[in-house]
Every structure is written in structure tokens, then in C-alpha cells.
Amino acid sequence: GNLHDDLKKIENERGPGINHGKGVAPKSRRILLSVISQFAIVSSAVQGTKQDDWGKVQAMLKGKFFSPVSAIASSRKSTAAGGDAETMFRLCEATFDLASFSPELVSSLFAQLEEGAEANMSRMECMQTLVEGGLSGYTCLSTEINASEDQYLIQWGRLRGALLTLIRSSAHPGLPPLAVEAVVAWINAENHAITMQCQAGPEASSSLFNEAVIGEDMLSAGAMIRVIGEILADLPKRSKRLGFDQIQLLESSRNSISVLQQSMSTVLQTILIDSPMASGDCYVDPRPTVCEAWFLTLFELIEFIEHESGHPQMLCNDPALRYLVSESAAAGLMLLLFPTVKNNVKGIVDIGMSLDGPHMLALMDFLESSFALGPIMLQTIASHLEKTFGISGIPIIGAALFRGGSGGLPPWAVECIPNVFSALFGAFGKDPNNFGKMLVDSMEITLHVNAARFGGVLPGSLFAGPLFKKLSEKTKQEFVQKSLELCAKDTGDAWRRFKVILKQLCGGKKKDSGFNLKPSYTNWECDRI
After folding, report:
1. SS3 category, 134
2. In angstroms, rounded to a whole number, what is the distance separating the alpha carbons of residues 176 and 45?
3. H-helix or E-strand containing 144?
């Protein structure tokens, strides 16, 4: 314990951001802090530990835990007033320190516990400071050309990483109660800032959405969404260690699901913003990573409910969960309608984010899982689309996938579409007649002539894209006939063959498409910052 205190004192004497010289780097010191915390927890469980010895260990650990809590609480006034780079740096370092403790301790920070009055006051002050600190940077958004690099915002960008690490560490086994409001506030504030950035136009600069603050070199947008997915994915393992039964496991997921339900509206609005990609290096478009984080997390929610909760029917039977999944799936399908797919109409350009990135891998996996939930989910997704466009929603589903396959999606993402169609066939109850009708209608459905443009779909044009206007009736009929023959077999080999005929229908392999190679998922780790 004394060794850690000495290292912390030396670190403070070196000054903010100086990691060379006497002592060790902050990361090394935090490893020691984590070991001390884990050792104290293990010691409490060892039989034969003297009560006096355990009391001393507990007091020592509590003192170390409340040291950064007090430091954060005491910085609230200066943080709320805007502060300076050094204040934000010290808040960031104290938050990383807090995140180094065991989940048992970190979760207590966010739990509604009855403690001593002074400790409880300090804990609440700490919580409020962290929430306000996490929100403060978003209010500093500037879209003026050549927005200057701000050291305060760079340190705030590091604070985002510290808060992400803290939320990860608080899972014991699920997200604690008081963390819900904080995470929702951070997610919604980020999406509001993204909306303001996009409204400034593709040639605007950005004080926030750049590699120094919110970007791949620091921590990409959507990080707080992503951590919810990580918590859900790790929940079964954590619950097993604590000896939880399935009822307790399901109850532990409630807070994470609540975050998704409360933030869905702002996230989906962000994903579907009508704004072109940034011109050149003006700013880093944050929408793709928000999209990636959302659909990855929704995929993990489905996996958790389907395979771990013991109540797989919940996703269709629970109205709130069904709405969360279906509305997200409908938004994902609408996103596939944004590319113009070479309609050759003068002056018509893409008005949405690029679909060239790992967010499309996440979307394809999510759509496949959503359709695999069956007819009820399919009908609910279709009803959302019908409400948006005022026409039957089922054909729009197929049309969106056709549009993706005919140039709207990168070639590597198109490889996933047959799996989505396979799940879609299952959602039709594996009825070839209804599935075949959907394929026919999807190639013919048009946006109403008096409707407003939606993404790349112009009034009176085909949802599936201009390519399908050129197809002969014979070509369409042959595709549907071959598709139904393969559906009747419903094997892995048959669906691989479906991929071949789908590519032939959509114009074959796209050369010089302008898309990049298949990407890796975004790195959400924060050790480097």
C-alpha cells in the first residue's frame, strides 16, 4: 500500500503528462493498484484470516479507493466552470485510478448504498463531477474552418476513455443503477453534437470530431454504446463466477437494456441524418462508428436473450424489447436506401454517411439475427417501414437488400446478404410462395411520385435501385424461379448458390467500385491514451 502511495506522490511531482524520470508510468502504478485491490478481496474470502488483520486491509483499501473519489469531488467547481487543461488532466487521471479497482468496489460508486453521511456526500459529488465532466466537451463544439487544437479538449478526449474504462470496471456483474442515467446522458449529448456537426455541412471543420479528440487515434464516437454491448456479452461469465441463477442473470441485464431503450431515438436519428460525408480531411465523420457500436450491441443483446437468458421468446413477446430490435432493424434497412447507386441523374449525390466500413459488417449480422427471430419480428419491422413510407413494408425489406447488392454496399458486405436472405426465408415460415412474392414485389416497388426523396431513392423511382429498371421480365422471373428451387433445398450449399445468382442479377462483380478492402472492427480499448 505504501509503495503505491510513494509512486503516486512521485508521479504528481513530475507534473501533468510527464511519464519519464523518477518513478513509473501511470499505467504501471495502476496495475499495482489493481493487484492490491484484488488481493484485499481474495484475503477477505480466505478462511482463518484474523478479524483485526482483515479490518486493517479493509480500511487501507477503502482509503485508497476514496482518495481519487475525493480528488474528483473536490474538482467539481473548476470542472463545471470550464476549467483548464491541467484540471481536466487531473480529473482524467483520477478517473483512470478509480477504474483500476475491482468491480466490487467500482460498482459501489454507482450503487444506491447507505453509507456514512460524509462518504455518501463525497461519492455523490464524485458522480456529479464525472457526469458533468463527460458532458462538458460536447458543449465546446466549434465547426468554424481551421478550428484550433485545444489542449483542454484533448484532455477531455482522454477523459472519455477514462469514463469508458470506469463503466467497464463497474459491471458486477451488470451495469449498476446510478450508471444508467450517466451513460444515457453521455450517449445523447454525443449524438446531439454529431447532429450539429452534420448540419454545418461537409466542408465544416470540427473542434471535436478529429483524430486528436474523438477519432480512431483517441477513442471513436459510439464508445459508450459499445461498452453496453461488452457488458451484455460478458454478463453470463461474470454471473457464473458469482453463482447467479438465470433469474438473477436476467435481472442483471435490465440496466444495460434500459440504456439502449433510452438512447435509441437519438442514436437512430444520428445514423439516418441527411448529410454528406465530410469533404477531404475537414473532420472525422463520427456516424459510422456510432452505427457500428449500435448494431454490434443490438446483435449482442439478441445473442444474450436468445442463448443465455432462458427466455428466448422475450424478444418477440416483450413489447419494449420487440420495439427496440424492430425499430433498429428498420433503421438499418433504411440506411441501405441511402446510396444513389449510379443513377446517372445530374446533381444527385449521396446525402448520408459512407457505407464502406465495419459498421456494415455489424449491420448484416444484426439483420440476420433479427430476421431469425421469426414472423412476429418480421411483421413488426415491416410495420415500421410502412409507417415511414406509407406503402407495404415487406417489399421494402427485399428492395433494400437488392439495393445493397447492386452497388450500395462494398463487395465484402454483399457476401453477407445471402445469409440475411436465408434468415428472411425462415421469417416467412419457410413458405416459398410468400417468399417468392416478396422477391417479385421487392424488384417492382417504387417510392410514391409525390413523396420526398429518401436517401438515394427519388420520387417515383425503384427502391431496389435503377439497375432493376433495366432488367427484363424474363430475367426477373428466372431469378425468382432459381431462388425458389434453392429455398426448397434450404441447405448451406443452396444458399451459397443463391449468392451466385444474386450477384448475376445485380450486375456481377463490381470492378473499380471505389470501396476499400474488408475492414476490421473498431478498436475500443483505451490503454494507449
Report:
1. helix
2. 23
3. none
Cell for 486? 434453392
- Whole-model pTM over 0.70: yes
How many whole angstroms separate alpha carbon 167 and alpha carbon 298? Answer: 18
* Distance (Å) of CA 172 to CA 61, 176, 340: 18, 7, 46
Contacts of 245 (CB under 8 A, 6+ apart): none
Among 466, 447, 445, residue whose Cα is nearest residue 340: 466
What CA–CA distance (Å, rounded) separates 153 from 138?
A: 9
pLDDT digits (tens, 9 = 90+) for 32-54: 888 888 777 666 555 555 556 66
The predicted-structure confidence for 111-154, as pLDDT tens digits, reads as follows 765 555 556 778 889 999 999 999 999 999 998 866 556 899 99
Q: Are 402 and 445 in contact (CB under 8 A)?
A: no
Q: Which helix (H) or strand (E) holds 199?
A: helix 177-199
Strands annotated E in 68-108? none
C-alpha cell at 283: 473532420
Residues 502 and 417 sit within 8 Å (Cβ to Cβ): yes
Angle between helix 117-136 and helix 177-199 axes, rounded to 10 deg: 20
Which residues on adjacent β-strands are paired with residue 454?
Answer: 457
Chain centroid offset of residue 463 CA: 27
Contact between 34 and 60 under an 8 Å Cβ cutoff? The reply is: no
**Helix and strand counts by DSSP (H, E) for the chain:** 24, 0
Query: CA 114 to CA 111: how far, in whole Å?
Result: 9
Here the cell at position 147 is 478550428
Residue 502 and residue 406 in contact, taking contact as beta carbons nearer than 8 Å: no
Give the rounded distance of the alpha carbon of 117 from its chain centre: 37
Residue 336 CB partners (closer than 8 Å, separation 6+) = 355, 400, 401, 403, 404, 408, 409
Do 109 and 170 contact (CB within 8 A), yes or no?
yes
